[in-house]
Structure formats: C-alpha cells, structure tokens
Amino acid sequence: MYPSRFRYEAPRSLAEAIGLLHDGGDDAKVLAGGQSLVPLMKLRFAAPQLVVDINNVPGLDYHRADADGTLRIGALCRHADLERSELLKTTQPTMASAAPLIADPIVRNRGTLVGSLCHADPQGDWASVVLALGGSVVAQGPRGIRAIPLADFVTGPFQNVLDPDEIAIEAVIPAAQGTRSGGYLKLERRVGDFATVGVAVALETSGETVTRAGIALTGVGGSTIGATSAAGALTGVPLTADRIAQAADLAAEAARPRTDHRGSAEYKRHMVRTFVVRLLSRTDAAAERAA
Ligand SMILES: Cc1cc2nc3c(=O)[nH]c(=O)nc-3n(C[C@H](O)[C@H](O)[C@H](O)COP(=O)(O)OP(=O)(O)OC[C@H]3O[C@@H](n4cnc5c(N)ncnc54)[C@H](O)[C@@H]3O)c2cc1C
After folding, report:
1. What are phi and psi of 49, to 5 degrees?
2. Could you tell me if the CB of 197 is within 6 A of ligand 1?
3. Sheet containing 144-149: which strands, arranged edge to edge?
4. pTM score > 0.85 for this model?
C-alpha cells in the first residue's frame, strides 16, 4: 500500500527541526531510520501530515564514551554502527551482544537505537538492553533539554512521554561503578525476526559482590518489562547458583506472556527462566566462583 499524502521536510539544523515539529503539532512525526515509521505509514497505521526527516541534521551520528565512562548514542547512530563498534565490544557486553540480533543487515544499516526506543515496540530489543543498563533518553524541544530515565520514557506499547515538538537527541548509559558483565539472548523463529522472548542482563561487580544488576524482558508483555525483583535478588551479594536460580524464577514471574502462534505462555516463561540462568552463569563473576 502507499502512505497517505504527507508533507516532507528535511531540515539542516536541530533548531529548524524542532520549529517544524512545533508548528506541525500532533500531526507531525520525526523520521530517523524510517524502518518502523515507513512500514506503519505504508500500512496506514500511521498517517502523519508532516514528516520531519532528521537525517540532514549534522552531529547526531555518534556513539562515544565520556572521560568517566558514560556512553552517549546519538539519534542518528545506526544499529550497524553499534554492531561494528570496538567501543561496545570492549566496554558494553550487553549492548555488543544485542546489536547483531536486531533485524537483518538491511534494517541495521538504516535503523537507529534512539528511534527504536522512541518507537517503544514491546518486541524492540534495544529498550530491554537500555532498561537493564539503567539508561535514559535526552530530549530537546522548544522548552529546553531534559533527560528521561528509560523506566519512565516508555508508557505503553508504541507510546512514550515525548511532547510532539521534542526530539530525542541521544540515549545515555551511565558509567559502570564496578566490572561490567552481562549479555542479551533472543529467541526468534528465524534469523532477523522480532523476539518471541528476549532477555537482557547487565551486572556490575566489585570483587565478588554484585554492586548493580539490571534484568529486562522483551516480547513477553504489553511493553518492555524491567524485572526489578529479580535484579534486586542479585544485588549486594556474591553471584551464587542459588541466587541465579532465584533471580531466574523472579524474572519468569515478572513476565506477562500470551499464548500465540509463537508458543504457549508457559513456554515463553520457561525461556525467560532459561535465558536468565544462561546469561548469569556465563558472567566473569560466576565463572570465577565456579573455578
Ligand atoms: C523487517 C524488519 C525487522 C525488524 N526487526 C527488528 C528486531 O528484530 N528487533 C528490533 O528491535 N527492531 C526490529 N525492527 C525495527 C527497527 O529496529 C527500527 O529501526 C526501529 O524500531 C526504529 O528505528 P528507526 O530509526 O528506523 O525509527 P523510525 O522508523 O524513523 O521511527 C520510529 C518511530 O520513532 C520516532 N522517532 C524516531 N527517532 C526519533 C527521535 N530521534 N526523536 C523523536 N522521535 C523519534 C518516529 O517518529 C516514529 O514514531 C525491524 C524492522 C523491520 C522493517
């Protein structure tokens, strides 16, 4: 199908883009990678009257670490940039393992992490990863700049707290306070598919003690789920087999899967439990204790 008729603008500065969105109000949409917006427009599930393409806005295609280790991912940083990133491979195991699992190479070449967070698809992989890492989204609009923790950013399926004239300019991952470990596992029917079940685990350890834990679930509820009780069971104590089993049970309890053509709710819950055990058992902290 063809999209409904719309006006297309490709501003060359952030200020111009924000001005266009402000004038367009509820009928305007930002276009970043276009890998979710364009299919929705073609299916006529979205029919914006104004599309503001931010691809000509300079200086948004970065991902970099500040001196203290805080990671910043600009609004035009593509999934493929993150897949190829040496910085992620050496400092961000959860992100590095998720990047190659997003869609297929064609989508990864255009789609953006920030766009994925804004799209707020319950099956979007990046939201779980960023939630597990305690990340946030920085938004800029006519009233200034604000940082929104991801836990508060997504309000439901395909919904976020951005005002119509705000642009998400970057995602921010806080610096680790200890040694980082973790990963992302995804059950998909075939390579490149959306997640039937996805689990993100992000740990920080100091000596034998887990100083921070984040666990988040993809595809097993109406929106991305932060398994906070499961993460809480790991924090402040060493990573033992008992703690891992307890966290896996709590994460499975936090899941809200539905039975569908991809599997029964019980099967999906079982996969959450299995993935949590697998991810936690392969962390450096667990490996050291098992040795
Ligand atoms: C075939 C296919 C398979 C896919 N498989 C997966 C998968 O396995 N896992 C997965 O996570 N995703 C998957 N996706 C989605 C893909 O990751 C998209 O790239 C992503 O969801 C949206 O990023 P985008 O940059 O393309 O955003 P766009 O499509 O440009 O925008 C998406 C939405 O976010 C808004 N938006 C985008 N950027 C901003 C911004 N900076 N500020 C404010 N609002 C903004 C737009 O207005 C729009 O509402 C798939 C897509 C396709 C087409």
Report:
1. -85, -20
2. no
3. 63-65, 71-74, 167-173, 136-141, 144-149
4. yes
